[in-house]
Amino acid sequence: MCDSRISNLKLIKKINKDITTVYIKPPAKRSIKSIVTYADVSLNTEYFTIKLLSEEAQRQNKTHRVVIMLELGDLREGVMREEIIDFYEKIFQLPNIKVVGLGTNLNCLHGVMPSEDKLIQLSLYKQIIELKFKRKIPFISAGTTVTLPLLLHKQLPDGVNHFRLGEALFWGNNLFDSSIIEGMETDVLELFAEIIEVNEKPVVPAGVLAENPSGEVFDVSEEDFGRTTFRGILDVGLLDINPDFLIPQDKDLEVVGASSDMLILDLKDNGKNYKVGDLVAFKLKYMGALGLLNSNYIEKVVE
Fold it and tell me: E strands, 159-241, where?
C-alpha cells in the first residue's frame, strides 16, 4: 500500500502489520523516525535524507528499503541522470539501507508524458548500476496511472515491473486519450451533499462587486439582467472540495460557485422539484476525491 501521508501508513500498519507500506515522496527530515517506523519502503532523491534513514534504521534495528527516483524530464522529484552513478555509490555504503528499486515520476507536475524511450533509459540505468556495483535491483518503478496504457499496449521495455497506481483503480482513466480502461468503472467514489436552501433568486448580484474571499470577481452579462433562476445551497464548501473537481450526476444542474462551507447550484427552473433535505449526487475527479477522503468533515460510507 502506497501513501504520501505517514498517518495513513500508521493506520494501515495498525490494521495489518504485515502489509508492505511505501512512502511515495522524499521524506522530510523531521519525519524520519516515523518513516522508518511505519514505512517499509520510501522513495528518495537526497543522500542527506537516506543517511538519516540509515541512522534511524540502526536505532530501530531495521533494514529500511529505498527506491531511488531518477529525473526524466517532468522536473518534480528525481536525481539528475549525470549524477546517478556517484549517488548510488554513496548509498550502497550506508548500513541498514537496502536499495530495492529505481523509479521515475512523469506527468504529475509539468504534464510530461511517459514514452517507451524514457522507460528504456530507466531500464538502461538499472543495468549500468547492477553491472558496476554487482548489486541486484529488483524493481523498476515506471510511474503512476499515466504509464499504464504503455503496459496495456505492450510498449513497456523489458525490466519494468512496478507501478504506483491510484487513479486507474478508482476511475479507470486512460490519461493518454481520456478514455476509460476496458472493464473499469468511473463511479466507484461518489459525493452526496444535502440541500439546505432552495430559493428563486436573481441571476445578477445586487450592489458594488469586488473580490470575494477566494479572490474571484463575478462577471456580469447584460443578457442576465432581470432573469431569475432557482438556486440550491448544499452543505459542503471549499473547505471540503474545489467545485472544479465536482461533476453533478444530474446533467441539468450547474455548479455556480462555493464559499468556505457552502456550494451553490443553479437548479434552472427546478423542474425536478429539488427541495431542502434532498441529497445531490456528484461524480468526482481525482484531486477532488483526494481531498474528500482526507477530510475529517466528510462521512465515508462503504457499500
Answer: 173-174, 179-180, 190-202, 228-234
> Which cell numbers in the block locate residue 224?
442576465
User: Please, what is the Cα angle at 211 between 206 and 216, to 5 degrees?
Assistant: 105
Helices (H) and strands (E) in the chain, counts: 8, 14
Which candidate, 104, 91, 23, 10, places its Cα nearest to that of 52? 91
Q: Residue 41: which region, alpha, beta or left (left: phi > 0; alpha: psi -120 to 50)?
A: beta
Domains and CATH numbers, the chain: 2-180 (3.20.20.10), 190-293 (2.40.37.10)
DSSP string, 74-122: S-SS-B-GGGHHHHHHHHTTSTTEEEEEEEE--SSSS-PPP-HHHHHHH
* pTM metric for this prediction: 0.89
**pLDDT tens for each residue of the chain, 303 residues long:** 999 999 999 999 999 999 999 999 999 999 999 999 999 999 999 999 999 999 999 999 999 999 999 999 999 999 999 999 999 999 999 999 999 999 999 999 999 999 999 999 999 999 999 999 999 999 999 989 999 999 999 999 989 999 999 999 989 999 999 999 999 998 899 999 999 999 999 988 888 888 887 778 877 787 778 889 999 999 999 999 999 999 999 999 999 999 999 999 999 999 999 999 999 999 999 999 998 998 889 999 999
User: What is the C-alpha separation between 10 and 16, in angstroms, rounded?
Assistant: 10
Q: CB-based contacts of 218: which residues, under 8 Å, 6+ apart?
A: 205, 209, 212
